[in-house]
Every structure is written in structure tokens, then in C-alpha cells.
């Protein structure tokens, strides 16, 4: 039996072209398994279901070989495992066709390696081109990323609410803006003082330049990233709400390779990142960490973020639930 497999990298892309090609190749749509996930990971529900259903003598048909995987190692490992189970591979649109009738043929093995290598090279070049385009646009003063969804009036109203002591949850409820949009666009909250005394943060910085004092006892009201402390009672409530949010940053190398551990941080309004933010929300209470760095450009959390959530007691399936509601 021939079983089809189609994949696109994001939920916004369309599978119709691949499904149409597989259908014209004689494969019933009931036997076509699909995924909307990056090929950089083998943790794809459609692929796992296909591998679990396939039996000896079956042939897996893909539009192109890079639909099965985007790295040479993963693709070759997958094909090797299928060969041991007596399952073949066939492609439809690659310039080099793979014939599963003789998997031990040296030329067939070479074709698999070449196609897998081309897929990995294309992914690497695409990432480099996108990074270069963002750098050039930034240097020319152009805004990169998704179009802004916040108007000047909304931003002014949100700033007024925050300055009045409203929490982020209250601001989102009254403005209709998401938490990620607020964190990205709201300007830093200015520090307010009631006396003529110099800024305590500046004093600490100048003192540390001359001597190294013993580490102070952690203060729950002190921002652990920049050391800011609320100077007025009105600033106290939103300051606590900001510090209650966990920020996760995934470096470029870890994001591209799908491994590593995200760096945890706490930020007040004075030092919080203002780039793209991926919001992780519990399906019941809406609370969760905020992800910054390259991972924030994705629609779904990458594997290191999912691993972090599991390690901290989150339930991932069927719904995303925080430890308080798992």
C-alpha cells in the first residue's frame, strides 16, 4: 500500500498543492498524513501516526524528500529505520527520483544523501537570507517584523492606565490589546521620587566602581535584572505584577538546533524587552511565561520551551495548562 505524507512549516501555509499531487499519484486522501510543523524536528504528530500505521511492504510517498526532514542526519536515520522494517520511500517532484524497489543500490543511496543535503542547505540559506534582510532593513531605519496592531490612541490610553497604577491584566481588559503587544510598545515607566536625593540605582553603580560591597539580601521589590525599586506606593502594584512574569530567552544557536535550555529572567518596566514576544498562556487562567529571542517569531513554542514547561509542571496535551490547573 502507498501512504502519502505532506508537510508545511507553519499553520499559515497551505497543504493543498502537496495533497493534490499525492492524490493525482493515486493515493487516497484517507491515507495521506499531514503536519503543519517545522521539518527540523521529528516530533510531528502526522509523521508519528504514519510511522505507526505503516507495515512491511508499504511505500511512503512524499512530494519532495525534504518534507520528511530538513537535516541530513534525521532524514537518513528515518529512511534507515523504514528500510529495516521493509517500508519503502518514493518522491514525486524532486529532480532526482528515489526508487524503493532496490534500497541497497549505491546510486539510490547517493540520490537520498544528495536530496537530504540539498534540503538542509536550503534551510540554512533561508535562515541566513532572512537574518541579512532584517539587518539591512534595521540599518536603513525600516521597521521589521509583523505590522503593528496598536494605534497611537490605544498606546496613549494604555500608558495613562499604567501610570495610574493599573496592572497589565487590567490594561489588557480595558484596551483589548494583548500582553505581548503591551510589553513590546509601552515605553519604560519613569521613576518617580519624592525627595531631592540622588537615584539609588546610580548611587549603587558609583559605589560598586570604587569597592566591592558584600552581596545584599534579596528584596522581593527589587528588580533582579536592573535593580530598580518602586519609589512610590502607586508604582508598587504594577511593579509587583511585572516581576511576577517569567521571561524566557532562547539563543540563536539553541533555537536553530532545537535544543538547549532557555535563560530565565525577571524584568520590571524599566528593563523589559520590547522586541517580538511569544506569549505562553494557560488555557484556563491565561498566565504563563513570555518568550523572547528568535523563538518569538514562531507560531508554536520550540522544543526547548516545551521541555522547560514540562519540567516546571505544565501539561501540554490536550490543552496547555499551568501547574495550578494541571
Task: Record keyword descriptors for this entry.
326 residues; single chain; four-stranded parallel beta sheet; elongated; four-stranded mixed beta sheet; alpha/beta; 40% helix
Rg estimate, integer Å: 26 Å
Please report which band the strand proportion falls in: under 5%, 5-15%, 15-25%, 25-35%, 35-45% or over 45%.
5-15%
Share of residues in helices? 25-40%
Backbone shape: elongated
Structural class of the helices, strands and pairings?
A: alpha/beta
Order of helices and strands: EHEHEHEHHHHHHEHEEEH
Mean pLDDT: 75
User: What strand order characterises the main sheet?
Assistant: 2-1-3-4
Sheet with the most strands, sense and barrel status:
4 strands, parallel
Give a count of the beta strands, DSSP E runs of length 2 or more. Answer: 8
User: Any low-confidence stretches, pLDDT <50, length ≥5?
Assistant: none
Please characterize this protein's 3D structure.
The protein has 326 residues and is of the alpha/beta class. 40% of the residues lie in helices and 10% in strands. The protein has eleven helices and eight strands. The chain has helices at 16-24, 45-53, 72-84, 106-139, 152-163, 168-175, 179-185, 200-210, 233-243, 252-257, 303-311, and strands at residues 2-8, 32-36, 59-62, 88-91, 247-249, 263-265, 278-279, 290-292. The strands form two sheets. The chain has a four-stranded parallel sheet with strand order 2-1-3-4, sandwiched between helices. A four-stranded mixed sheet has the order 6-5-8-7, with no helix packed on it. Helix 3 links the parallel strand 3 (59-62) and strand 4 (88-91). Helix 5 runs antiparallel to helix 6 (168-175). It is elongated, with a radius of gyration of 26 Å. The two termini are 41 Å apart. 25% of the residues are buried. The model has no long low-confidence stretch (mean pLDDT 75).
Amino acid at each position: 500500500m502507498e501512504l502519502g505524507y505532506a508537510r508545511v512549516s507553519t499553520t499559515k501555509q497551505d497543504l493543498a498543492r502537496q495533497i493534490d499531487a499525492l492524490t493525482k499519484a493515486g493515493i487516497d486522501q484517507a491515507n495521506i498524513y499531514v503536519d503543519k510543523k517545522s521539518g527540523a524536528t521529528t516530533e510531528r504528530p502526522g509523521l508519528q501516526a504514519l510511522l505507526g500505521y505503516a507495515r512491511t511492504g508499504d511505500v511512503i510517498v512524499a512530494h519532495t524528500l525534504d518534507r520528511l526532514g530538513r537535516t541530513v542526519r534525521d532524514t537518513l536515520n528515518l529512511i534507515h529505520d523504514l528500510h529495516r522494517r521493509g517500508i519503502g520511500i518514493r518522491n514525486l517532484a524532486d529532480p532526482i527520483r528515489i526508487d524503493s524497489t532496490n534500497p541497497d543500490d549505491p546510486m539510490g543511496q547517493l540520490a537520498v544523501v544528495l536530496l537530504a543535503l540539498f534540503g538542509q542547505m536550503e534551510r540554512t540559506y533561508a535562515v541566513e537570507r532572512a537574518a541579512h534582510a532584517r539587518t539591512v532593513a534595521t540599518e536603513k531605519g525600516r521597521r521589521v517584523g509583523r505590522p503593528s496592531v496598536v494605534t497611537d490612541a490605544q498606546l496613549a490610553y494604555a500608558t495613562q492606565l499604567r501610570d495610574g497604577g493599573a496592572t497589565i491584566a487590567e490594561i489588557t481588559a480595558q484596551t483589548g490589546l494583548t500582553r505581548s503587544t503591551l510589553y513590546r510598545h509601552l515605553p519604560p515607566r519613569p521613576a518617580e521620587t519624592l525627595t531631592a536625593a540622588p537615584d539609588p540605582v546610580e548611587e549603587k553603580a558609583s559605589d560598586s566602581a570604587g569597592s566591592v560591597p558584600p552581596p545584599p539580601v534579596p528584596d522581593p521589590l527589587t528588580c533582579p535584572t536592573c535593580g530598580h525599586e518602586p519609589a512610590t506606593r502607586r508604582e508598587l502594584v504594577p511593579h509587583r505584577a511585572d516581576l511576577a512574569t517569567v521571561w524566557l530567552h532562547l539563543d540563536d544557536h539553541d533555537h536553530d538546533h532545537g535544543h538547549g535550555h532557555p535563560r530565565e529572567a525577571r524584568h520590571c518596566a524599566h528593563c523589559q524587552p520590547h522586541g517580538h514576544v511569544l506569549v505562553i498562556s494557560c488555557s484556563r487562567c491565561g498566565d504563563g511565561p513570555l518568550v523572547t529571542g528568535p523563538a518569538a517569531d514562531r507560531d508554536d513554542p520550540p522544543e526547548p520551551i516545551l521541555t522547560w514547561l514540562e519540567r516546571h509542571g505544565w501539561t501540554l496535551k490536550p490543552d496547555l495548562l499551568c501547574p495550578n490547573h494541571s
